[in-house]
Each structure stands twice: as structure tokens, then as C-alpha cells.
Amino acid sequence: MLNLFLPNKHVKSIFDIEPTFLQAEGKKGIIIDLDNTLVPWNVSHATDEVITWLKKMDDANIKVTIFSNNNEERVTVFAEPLGTPFIYQARKPLQRAFKRAKIQMELETDEIVVIGDQLLTDILGGNKAGFYTILVVPIVQSDAPITKFNRNVERLILNYFYRKGKLTRRMTDGE
Fold it and tell me: Which one of 24, 39, 76, 142 has the minimum C-beta count within 10 Å?
């Protein structure tokens, strides 16, 4: 059961994920979380670095869909200026919106990677839907109030994976 929380890969940030790696793995699409994955949860717009990363994916013909449990306004304000498809109120880890993203991208399950900073939403949902999953270290250590409970549960699961050698710790800037 705990293996449903185990990502296929664990990296420090999205910037550690290169198009060449994804292409070598046969990936043609990314379903990516917004808050604390692309930008801190309290930042409204993409940074220049995120814009550059998204352009690299586009140049490599890798489709990207921004995928968030957050509300329509939050996700629209972020994604529309980028011209990036998005799904808001995804209700992760439920599979329905993951399947919707797959259909919108017109790709097969094995051609898509799910990237996010939370085990209990992004990784669990992506794994249950059959996608390759990549866990990133949260950009900031503070969270929206609703996420704080999840982080405590995640810490227990991550520590279990570290002890068992299933994951390698990824250091944050402050450590």
C-alpha cells in the first residue's frame, strides 16, 4: 500500500528535469502541480526561470498541463498568460481529472509524467492513474493551511522510504 506513495523519481526542483531525460523515457507530456512545484503557493505569476523551463519543454514538443486543486481564479491567473492548458479544482488524488488531462493531451498513459511536491495528492493520484511520477522538493517550507496536515503525514512516509533506501534525500536550500 505504501508503494502507492513512492515516486518513480525524486529531484530537488523542476529545473532538474530536462527534456532529454523525458524523451529518453518516452514521455511526451507533463501533468504538473502549480503551488510549491512551479512557484511558491503564494506567488501569482510565473518567474522567468519557470517561463524558460516551459519553453524548453515546448521546444522539445513535450505538452504541459498545469494541474491544481486550487480554485479557478488562482490557476487561471497563473496559466492563461503562459498559454498553458490547465485544470483547476482537480480534486487530487482522485483519478477523474488525471484522466481528463490525459484525454486533453491526446497521449497514452505511458507517455505522461506527473510532477508535484506532495505525496498525498500528486504522487498518489499519479501512481493510482498509472503515470510515471516525479516528486520535487517543495519550493518553500511554508504552506497554505490546508496543506499543513498533509505535510506531517508525508514526512512520516518519506522517512520510511529514506530508511528503507527506496528514496534518497533531496536537500533544500536551507539545509
Answer: 24
- Residues 128, 135 contacting (CB under 8 angstroms): no
pLDDT at residue 143, rounded to an integer: 64
Residue-wise pLDDT tens digits, 62-111: 999 999 999 999 999 999 999 999 999 999 999 999 999 999 999 999 99
Nearest to 173 by CA among 137, 122, 128, 130: 137
pTM score, two decimals?
0.92
CA dihedral (154, 157, 158, 161) in degrees, to 10, reads: -160
Residue 56 lies in a domain: yes
Q: Dmax over Cα atoms in the chain, in whole Å?
A: 43
Residue 97 belongs to domain with CATH number:
3.40.50.1000
Answer whether residue 150 is part of any domain.
Answer: yes
Mean residue pLDDT across the chain: 92
Report the domain count for the chain: 1
Using DSSP's 3-state secondary structure scheme, residue 9 falls into strand
